[in-house]
Amino acid sequence: MTATAAPIAVSDRITNLDTIRGVATLGEVFVDQKTMALFSLLFGAGIVVFADRVEAKGRRAVWLSL
């Protein structure tokens, strides 16, 4: 493996998903567990985005997520 870990470019980020994730994280801190469903949904959405990007590169996402 010669690929190095690096942050993705700003143009590749999904702004709406980042915004909602930030709201869910703040809600987790301030509301104490009442936004757990939203946070879980966004975690799943992040996994889907991760898997799509890995598959686009021609790699198997299952092995990377284990």
List keywords for this structure.
66 residues; mainly alpha; single chain
Descriptive notes:
The chain is mainly alpha-helical and 66 residues long. The chain has a domain at 33-66. 65% of the residues lie in helices and 0% in strands. The chain contains 3 helices and no strands. It has helices at residues 15-31, 36-56, 61-65. Helix 1 (15-31) runs antiparallel to helix 2 (36-56). The two termini are 17 Å apart.
Shape: elongated
Biggest β-sheet strands, sense, barrel: none
| Strand elements, count | 0
Instruction: Give the % helix.
Output: 55-70%
Q: Helix- and strand-based class?
A: mainly alpha
Poorly predicted parts: none
Counting DSSP H or I runs of 4 or more residues, the number of helices is 3
For this structure, the quaternary state is single chain
Task: Report, as a whole number of angstroms, the end-to-end distance.
Answer: 17 Å
Radius of gyration: 14 Å
**Average of per-residue pLDDT values:** 78
Query: H/E series, N to C?
Result: HHH
Strand content: under 5%
In short:
The protein is mainly alpha-helical and 66 residues long. The chain is built from 3 helices and no strands.
Give the helix/strand layout.
Blueprint: H1 15-31, H2 36-56, H3 61-65
Helix pairs in contact: 1-2
